[in-house]
Amino acid sequence: MPFVKRDATGRIVALYRERSDEASEYLAAGHPEIADFAGYEGVRGEHSNMLQSDLEMIRVYEDLIDILISKRIVVLTDFPSAAQEKLVRRKRLRSSLSSLTEVLAPEDDEGDEEVLP
């Protein structure tokens, strides 16, 4: 799949799983003309939005786990060992990155604030 049917101008008008009299030309599923016909660009955009949302939610879940652990509602050892390893690795990574951003971030000088009229 897919075999394509074209109109008189050469544009794809239908896709077929199997070869037929109407559709004897085969194009790879990832071919740009197939993507254009199927409207994959919009799908890719939505997929990208969902992926970005997933990445943002991961941070929320990490923060939630940290809160639950700090309030002693759950203990790290309540998680399966594979999850514990991932949580500890992620915590170390975020910690190392936060110290790096503190070094790179400009300092706030409290006395140097500009007052606008």
What are the main properties of this structure?
single chain; 117 residues; mainly alpha; 2 domains; three-stranded antiparallel sheet; 3 helices; 53% helix; elongated
Task: Explain this structure.
By secondary structure, the chain is mainly α. The chain folds into two domains: 36 residues, no CATH class; 52 residues, no CATH class. It has three helices and three strands. A three-stranded antiparallel beta sheet has the order 2-1-3, covered by helices on one side. A hairpin with a 5-residue loop joins strand 1 and strand 2. The radius of gyration is 27 Å and the shape is elongated.
Note the run of SSEs as H and E.
EEEHHH
Give the helix tally.
3
**Alpha-beta content class:** mainly alpha
Number of domains: 2
**Count of distinct strands:** 3
What's the arrangement of strands in the largest beta sheet?
A: 2-1-3
Radius of gyration: 27 Å
Low-confidence stretches: none
Shape: elongated
